[in-house]
Amino acid sequence: MRRSSERFIKTIDDCFSQAEKVPTEGLLFSYRGILYPATVTSPETLEALENFEARNDDVILAGYPKTGTNWLDQIVRELESADVKCTEEEMKEKIDAEKKLETFPRLEFGDPGVYERMKNLPSRRIILTHLPPHLLPVSILQGKAKILLLVRNPKDTAVSYYHFYNNMPVLPSFTSWDEYFPAFMSGKVAWGSYFDHLIEWNKYIDHERIVMMNYEELKEDQIQGMKKIAAFFGFSLSEEDFHRIAKKTSFQAMKDKSKETHGKFGDILFRKGVVGNWKDLFSKAQNEEMDRKFQDCLGGTKLAAKMKYDVYCKA
Length: 315
Ligand code: A3P
Fold this sequence. Notes:
Blueprint: H1 5-21, E1 28-31, E2 34-37, H2 43-48, E3 59-63, H3 69-84, H4 88-99, H5 114-118, E4 126-129, H6 138-142, E5 146-151, H7 154-167, H8 177-185, H9 194-202, E6 210-214, H10 215-220, H11 222-233, H12 239-248, H13 251-256, H14 258-262, H15 264-269, H16 284-298, H17 302-307, H18 309-313
Parallel strand pairs: 3-4, 3-5, 5-6
Antiparallel strand pairs: 1-2
Helix pairs in contact: 3-12, 9-16
Bound molecules: adenosine-3'-5'-diphosphate.
Adenosine-3'-5'-diphosphate binds next to helix 3, helix 7 and helix 13.
């Protein structure tokens, strides 16, 4: 694995211990009307982000929190390394540069100096973000970098985020699902409104350098999904590579290795990894409210059609 697990685990541990010292009301801060976790980013970092310089060969992975972005990150790193087949020396250079970032591999995480350090990452850089397009640095959309957008149905995303909120020390807890639900619906959660994200991304749906993928389609046929990703980024892999990577990045395989790869974060991240878990928590009224909201915000859009809401979200 390219990501330095040791560094990742240390960063997680530092964040968790820092969060323990912060009073609940200080765990989140608001920047331009959107909430962010204070132990992983800051207003200064978000300001400095504007100066981030994208490269034409950057691989940008975008997705609202809890849509499977860590899974996608792992898949794309595996696909890319099977394509490039780095020498030991090149691999070491990459790992060393990643270690020096001293943060999680997310575009909007870390201290304001992280963007200077990112310049030392050798190409191709694989960069993950939870930000919607209008909050991305201009160089990403104006340049030639390709963007893979991961989307998950809103009901499973909401449930996944609820458990994440209550298990992640860096986020404040909710006392119940019923208390959390209105916060999710009105975007009063970290990274803002799920719906606003997709409304913004829908404007780019026909962009030649942006492709969208569903968590659900990746779950249903991972090999097919990975072939689509590889074709989009121009990675060339054998049939055997695809099968090997699918096995290595299955939910169970990643969960089994998570102590080693993600430390304490593993138990929080690898929860269920299924489609349809929302049925355990949504009341009839909440279900109807979500259906209405989705229709109001995204009904009739190309993005909604690709998401197959009726297949994954109807009771
Ligand atoms: P659940 O909470 O529904 O289980 P993110 O990485 O964006 O935070 O998304 C986390 C969600 O992706 C979690 O969903 C997690 O279980 C799921 N996930 C992580 N790895 C996965 C994998 N290999 N296959 C399927 N789902 C995975």
